[in-house]
Amino acid sequence: MDFNALRQIENEQKRISALYEIFNEDSRLNHSNAAKVEFITTANFIEKHLKQGDKLIDIGAGTGEYSIHYANKGYSVTAVELADNNISVFKNKLTPDLDVNLTQGNACDLSMFSDNTFDIVLLLGPLYHISDLSERKKCINEARRVCKQEGIIFVAYISSDMVILTETFLYNSDYLKNGDYDKKTFALENFPFVFSTVSNARNELIQERLEILHEVASDGLSELLAEKINKLDDEGFSLYLNYHLYCCEKPEMLGRSNHLLFVCKN
């Protein structure tokens, strides 16, 4: 299936499922050292707030990268995923020793879960797919509802400003000439993903009454510099990670990352 066919699918679940037949979510965070930067950075911030005995919910869990990681560490994890292909891959990874409850569901309707249930809420993908403002509000508020008071919610966005650079210098050298973006405002077409600027993401979370604790350039320049990063030896990569973690919260670095992470107190 190509992107033109994808545009014709009106049903949200079918469209998102079809998207993840095109994109291999299972390898996105682990196929190379450069690809691992986003996961390592996100996990670094999760573990700043994670306490023994905490209950986690991974909303938009993909193929289970975070869910299985924390289940392997002994945590009880509830995972919610919409896309059929991702669910199938996720199920094949589960073993009886992992405390993972996997449910197919929509991030905008978590009515199967009670209020104030989870200590840690991961919302690391759903806002990549929801363009309607009222549905985005539902998504964030459902995450807030199932999170305990004073619990921590991790919210991810795709940064529109950085995408223009990665598209141009990695995938389509003519993107600045013919890419799907407004040539004056540099706003991207929200397809096949939904994109945000740093300020728009921040304002959306503040409007939903979340207290932002950290703003993070979660993968920084790792996609743009992937070829060079992947040539580093183990020591070099470790030093690169140290440098990335040192600067990933600097305000001047936030717009230069394909993915943004906001760590919020409920």
Instruction: State mean pLDDT (0 to 100 scale).
Output: 96
What is the third-level CATH name, the topology?
Rossmann fold
For this structure, what is the CATH homologous superfamily? Vaccinia Virus protein VP39
The secondary-structure class comes to alpha/beta
Distance, first to last CA: 40 Å
* Main sheet makeup: 7 strands, mixed
Spatial order of the strands forming the largest sheet = 3-2-1-4-5-7-6
Which overall shape is indicated by the principal axes computed on the Cα atoms?
Answer: globular
Order of helices and strands: HHHHEHEHEEHEHHHEHHE
**Proportion of helical residues:** 40-55%
**How many strand segments?**
7
**Helix segment tally:** 12
What share of residues are in beta strands? Answer: 15-25%
CATH hierarchy, class? Alpha Beta
Give an account of the 3D structure.
The structure is a single chain. The chain is α/β, with parallel strands linked by helices and 266 residues long. The protein has one domain (3-161, 187-265): Rossmann fold (3-Layer(aba) Sandwich). It has helices spanning 3-7, 12-22, 25-28, 33-49, 65-72, 84-93, 133-146, 160-171, 175-178, 198-207, 226-229, 234-247, and strands at residues 55-59, 76-81, 100-104, 118-123, 147-158, 211-217, 259-265. It has a seven-stranded mixed sheet with strand order 3-2-1-4-5-7-6, with helices on both faces. The protein is globular, with a radius of gyration of 18 Å. 39% of the residues are buried.
